[in-house]
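for the writeup, i need someone to sanity check this before i put it in the appendix. the sequnce is what the collaborator sent (i think, or maybe the updated version? ugh). structure was predicted straight from it, no edits. if anything looks off just tell me and ill rerun, i have time this weekend
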Amino acid sequence: MSSEPVQVFGRPPSPLGVVVAHRRPADLDSLVRWLSADDRFTVSAAANDTTALMEAVTAANPAVALVDLELGGVRTGIQAIADLRDVHPAVRVVAVADADDDRAYAALRAGAVGLYLWSDPVSPVSNVVAGVARGEGVLTPGWAGRLLDEVGWLTRESSPLRAPELTPTELEVVRRVASGATAAAVAALHGVTEHLVNVHAGIVVTKVFRHHDDSRRLGLTPA
């Protein structure tokens, strides 16, 4: 791959455009190669820092952006996710992380709707991207466990903002995933499609993000 921070590729009208950003050249190459091999997508641009990422998304207007949490530049990867959510709200962001930890969960609070883990043997990146592009959320066990903890804490705390209210179905999905169940396993258990399970997951992620976004706008938490 070229050493230039941004490579803009041809974008056919039919496949979904994706921008990929990662600090490690080998991993950036892998993500581009895997997605380019799937005819559902075209990799509109690749970037190796946060400035290049923002420029690439502005130029390409993709459906999905994959963002490495440790991306360097004038912003951190998490700050870039928050900026993308503010400036390009129609672009759905998938965070790319090495671990399903608190830092990865910060990407959800910044506006990511899914998390792709390098260590995940179950969910190929193409499936993750396809899911978020059709309105699904992608929960990992770490994200789901932290969601439950946070919603529980917000429910108990006194605040001008009402805590996110999850339906029984949404809670069931999050609890099952937090316990280690895949979306496919939850779907099989209840006799529904995996798509429906992931739609519920996406609604939960959106509710929690909106709570954080409202809290920031009201000055209740740091921007």
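The beta strands are 6-8, 16-21, 41-47, 64-68, 92-97, 114-117. The mean pLDDT is 88.
thx in advance!!
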